[in-house]
Design brief:
Its EC number is 3.4.21.92. Helices cover 59% and strands 13% of the residues. It has helices at 7-32, 35-67, 73-88, 100-116, 133-145, 161-167, 195-220, 224-230, 239-245, 255-262; strands at 91-95, 122-128, 150-159, 174-176, 181-184, 235-238, 250-251.
Length: 272
């Protein structure tokens, strides 16, 4: 005797039976696990999660540390404090290349010191290899624009536009430390493109050359032809040679010499 049942009724009943058997076997297996094993497993999982969290936090701190490169806040705060103290003494520094950033800051400092006390001298310390002619001319024009006398001091190196700004200080108040070096030369640059564009740039450089040589002749009291010949190539001088040339007025050793000389009192010590 044979019989058959519809498959649509058989499969659900078998699926339900299998599910019930699986759940029952799982409950019995859990009941057979000792309680201390369950506690240890839970503790292990918690420890693993905590370790992972610590490692992730440590890694994130390392990433933040790697991304936050540069001077620390303490160093920056100290640097800003020194700059503020120098400004209180009416001292400005040109330390590094003559570029738009450094010269814009110097222009702002000159204008601020002029507004605070137009009768008290300002001292500009120069330690620069030179740089942009147009940026340097902005400082030069501002030095002539403000009312206080600008005293200049060479510390280390004053080359190219740095030497020009050193020599552009108030006559009688241009100084250099004994081991400093001063260098003057003609402007340099380059251009590329069409012939007409190159000609425009060449004419601009020649304009700067003529302007700078004219001012150097005014600063030093030398004939323009002599200045043009001397600036045709790099012309290095010691502090004493720069004094003889007329780029500076005195070679000094002590900071007080700058203050005494700038005040108009004849120097009695420290002048070389």
């Amino acid at each position: 005797m044979s019989f058959s049942l519809p498959s649509t009724r058989l499969r659900p009943s078998l699926r339900g039976a299998n599910t019930s058997l699986y759940q029952e076997s799982r409950r019995s297996a859990v009941r057979t696990i000792p309680a201390e094993v369950v506690v240890r497993a839970k503790a292990f999982n918690d420890e693993s999660l905590q370790s992972t969290s610590v490692q992730s936090t440590s890694a994130s701190r390392q990433i933040v540390a790697q991304q936050s490169k540069g001077p620390s806040p303490i160093v920056m705060e100290r640097f800003q404090g020194v700059a503020s103290q120098l400004m209180n003494q009416r001292i400005i520094r040109l330390g590094g290349a003559v570029d738009d950033d450094s010269c814009n800051l110097i222009v702002a400092q000159l204008l601020w010191l002029d507004a605070t006390d137009p009768k008290k001298d300002i001292t500009l310390y120069v330690n620069s290899p030179g740089g942009s002619v147009t940026a340097g001319m902005a400082v030069f024009d501002t030095m002539r624009h403000v009312r206080p006398d600008i005293s200049t001091v060479c510390v280390g190196l004053a080359a190219s536009m740095g030497a020009f700004l050193l020599a552009s200080g108030q006559q009688g108040k241009r100084f250099s430390l004994p081991n400093s070096r001063i260098m003057i030369h003609q402007p340099l640059g380059g251009a590329q493109g069409q012939a007409a564009d190159i000609e425009i740039q060449a004419n601009e450089i020649m304009h700067h050359k003529s302007t700078l040589n004219g001012y150097l002749a005014e600063f030093t009291g030398k004939p323009l032809d002599t200045v043009m010949q001397d600036t045709d190539r790099d012309f290095f001088m010691s502090a004493f040679e720069a004094k003889e040339y007329g780029l500076i007025d005195s070679v000094i050793e002590h900071p007080t010499d700058v203050a005494v000389r700038s005040s108009g009192i004849p120097m009695y010590a420290g002048e070389l």
